[in-house]
């Protein structure tokens, strides 16, 4: 394989100074990491600038990727550099008040890359440096190491063949420097990117395959141990993976207005090679609510122009034929049918082979329509909220679906009772994937938080509750339980969430005189949730059934709290009791019973060892119950089988 850089006899001098380069010769192979060392002022940065075509040598030869770059005109040099090279300097040079996405996206805007492709390439570039979870953060909120990794992603977003780095770890601590160098080594040895790096640090140089020192304007080789890279590597680190099945997820909104289960569901399907596109029936802009979404799949939505196309579909024969197959009287059915007509067109354009709808109402109806028109298999999921008011066309969709996913055992039983004609093997119990785990960020140690939590434990019992502020979350029961405790238990309760009952709950808090013990935090950003769980000693989920006996399923926040090792107190809703067992991995109290809840709080306050035991058991049991990889294997097999 020909070297990607060949330099012969490079000379460079500045007026009034001794020559900086006096005949430099160097060859760099694809996938090779090259370190250039030497004392300050020896010309290391000058040499890097010459190799990067930022400065022209006084004489010599320079061939990059088979092109004699010294013969190119200025515009040609700029275009060649943009298309083939990436630069990482000691200072990350990010736009402080822009998001990580906006910083990495900038080179693509300059190259006029379409918005949908920009999103996908930015996320893949951030995945290379393990920072896609920070895509929506402002860059001034990142640590120094994270900022430098964003700079690497920005340098990689145009898929360069050559990466030039000037002291990229000079301002970082030892641990973060090692992380950066491991990122570089992965990029080079996995993707065939050639790296030329200037550094003072011999420990960082040891990560490289070849080490030179620049001595009196000449390069002296100190180490040369090339990594044996296969011939097929180095094509494109940003190329999308080849899917197992070209599947599409159909949702009402994406991302959701609140919660993250749908995002995690999409992430899980994508990781298994089953998801190639996401379709949202409502919403006008992907960036309208991007919080927490970090998959390299831009969302295709029904825009205003698409709605005009839908209106025209109302007069088509296909619409009325499908309409005749469904029971009448369902509100919103017309919209779902028309959306399905449009989805069918998209599916044919993009070669989709399987449809999976999130939600048993409009998304499932639209997916059924699209699948019927394209002769594709489809499936949908059913959640507890879907069965509060089951759609009249549920039986039709269930008949044609290859499988139906249920999120809890209660939901599965209710659906079985509602549709007894549906074969048992068509109903699959697969719980929602875990949305948040502790310790996901290696650069954000929780030592200070843990110390503060330990100090707080000596004075107050720190409690947390999360959820929409409505009647079914039982927040009023928690408030009354705290009032029942009086001064017997010094505690603080933080409630995250918003909803229609906020005003009523704040009035209740004032009336019962517990305002100094309870704080309403509002809707917390997802990035702040780990801090809430880390500071808490106990998590409370006091949900209750609605008047018709329905409930909201197993709360996402309860699963997150258990994953953080928090002891939990839950009401005896059937969904809670599927996972939480009284005195094994939590405490279970009757619904709408402030006295019983107060007794449970008092017990956990007085027994720190019990809190520790229940917390460890909760953490273990939630991972077993929500084993995403194992639990979703059945769905993976079903999809692969029906597509053939």
CATH class of the largest domain: Alpha Beta
Secondary structure category: alpha/beta
- As for the number of domains, it is 3
Spell out the CATH superfamily of the largest domain.
P-loop containing nucleotide triphosphate hydrolases
Q: What's the Cα radius of gyration? A: 29 Å
Strand order in space, largest sheet = 13-12-11-14-15-16-17
Describe the secondary-structure layout.
Elements: E1 5-12, E2 21-28, E3 33-37, H1 44-51, E4 59-64, E5 67-68, H2 74-84, E6 85-89, H3 100-110, H4 115-128, H5 144-156, E7 162-166, H6 174-191, E8 194-198, H7 202-205, E9 210-215, E10 218-224, E11 247-251, H8 261-271, E12 277-280, E13 299-301, H9 304-313, H10 317-323, H11 333-350, E14 354-358, H12 362-374, E15 378-382, H13 394-400, E16 404-406, H14 409-418, E17 427-429, H15 447-457, E18 461-466, H16 475-485, E19 491-496, H17 502-512, E20 518-522, H18 529-535, E21 538-541, H19 556-563, E22 568-571, H20 574-577, E23 587-589, H21 594-606, H22 608-625, H23 628-631, H24 633-643
Parallel strand pairs: 3-8, 3-9, 6-7, 7-8, 11-12, 11-14, 12-13, 14-15, 15-16, 16-17, 18-19, 18-21, 19-20, 21-22, 22-23
Antiparallel strand pairs: 1-2, 1-4, 4-5, 9-10
């Amino acid at each position: 394989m020909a070297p990607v850089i060949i330099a012969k006899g490079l000379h460079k001098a500045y007026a009034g100074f001794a020559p900086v380069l006096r005949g430099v010769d160097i060859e760099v192979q694809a996938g090779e990491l090259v370190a250039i060392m030497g004392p300050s002022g020896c010309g290391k940065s000058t040499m890097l600038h010459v190799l990067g075509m930022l400065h022209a040598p006084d004489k010599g030869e320079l061939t990059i990727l088979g092109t004699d770059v010294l013969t190119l005109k200025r515009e040609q040099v700029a275009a060649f550099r943009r298309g083939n090279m990436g630069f990482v300097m000691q200072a990350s040079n990010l736009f402080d008040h822009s998001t990580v996405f906006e910083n990495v996206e900038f080179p693509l805007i300059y190259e006029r890359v379409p918005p949908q492709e920009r999103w996908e390439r930015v996320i893949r570039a951030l995945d290379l440096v393990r920072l896609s979870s920070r895509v929506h953060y402002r860059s001034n909120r990142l640590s120094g190491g994270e900022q430098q990794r964003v700079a690497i992603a920005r340098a990689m977003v145009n898929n360069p063949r050559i990466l030039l780095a000037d002291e990229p770890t000079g301002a970082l601590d030892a641990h973060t420097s090692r992380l950066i160098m491991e990122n570089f080594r992965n990029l080079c040895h996995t993707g065939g990117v050639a790296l030329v790096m200037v550094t003072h640090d011999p420990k960082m140089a040891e990560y490289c395959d070849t080490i030179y020192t620049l001595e009196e304007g000449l390069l002296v080789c100190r180490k040369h141990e090339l990594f044996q890279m296969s011939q097929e590597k180095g094509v494109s680190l940003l190329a999308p993976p080849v899917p197992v099945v070209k599947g599409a997820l159909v949702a009402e909104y994406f991302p959701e207005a609140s919660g993250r289960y749908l995002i995690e569901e999409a992430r899980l399907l994508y990781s298994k090679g089953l998801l190639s596109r996401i379709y949202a029936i409502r919403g006008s802009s992907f960036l309208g609510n991007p919080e927490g979404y970090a998959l390299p799949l831009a969302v295709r939505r029904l825009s205003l122009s698409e709605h005009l196309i839908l209106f025209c579909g109302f007069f088509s024969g296909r619409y009325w034929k499908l309409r005749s197959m469904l029971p009448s009287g369902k509100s919103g059915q017309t919209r779902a049918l028309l959306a399905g007509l449009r989805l069918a067109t998209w599916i044919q354009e993009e070669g989709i082979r399987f449809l999976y709808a999130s939600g048993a109402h409009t998304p499932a109806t639209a997916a059924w329509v699209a699948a019927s028109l394209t002769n594709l298999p489809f499936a949908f999921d059913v959640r507890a909220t879907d069965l509060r008011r089951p759609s009249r066309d549920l039986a039709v969709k269930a008949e044609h679906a290859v499988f139906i996913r249920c999120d809890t055992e209660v939901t599965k039983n209710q659906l079985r009772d509602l549709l007894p004609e549906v074969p048992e093997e068509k109903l699959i119990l697969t719980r929602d994937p875990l949305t948040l785990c502790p310790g996901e960020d290696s650069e954000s140690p929780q030592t200070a938080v843990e110390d503060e939590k330990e100090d707080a434990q000596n004075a107050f019992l720190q409690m947390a509750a999360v959820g929409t502020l409505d009647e079914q979350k039982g927040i009023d029961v928690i408030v009354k339980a705290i009032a029942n405790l009086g001064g017997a238990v010094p505690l603080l309760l933080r409630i995250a969430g918003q909803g229609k009952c906020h005003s009523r709950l704040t009035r209740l808090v004032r009336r019962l005189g517990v305002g100094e013990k309870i704080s309403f935090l509002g809707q917390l950003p997802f990035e702040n949730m780990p801090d809430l769980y880390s500071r808490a000693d106990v998590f409370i989920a006091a949900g209750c059934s609605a008047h018709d006996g329905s409930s909201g399923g197993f709360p996402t926040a309860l699963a997150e709290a258990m994953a953080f090792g928090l002891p939990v107190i839950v009401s005896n809703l059937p969904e809670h009791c599927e996972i939480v067992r009284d005195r094994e991995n939590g405490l279970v109290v009757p619904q709408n019973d402030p006295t019983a809840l107060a007794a449970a709080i008092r017990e956990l306050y007085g027994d720190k060892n019990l809190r520790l035991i229940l917390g460890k058991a909760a953490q273990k049991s939630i991972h077993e119950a929500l084993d995403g990889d194992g639990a979703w294997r059945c769905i993976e097999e079903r999809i692969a089988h029906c597509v053939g």
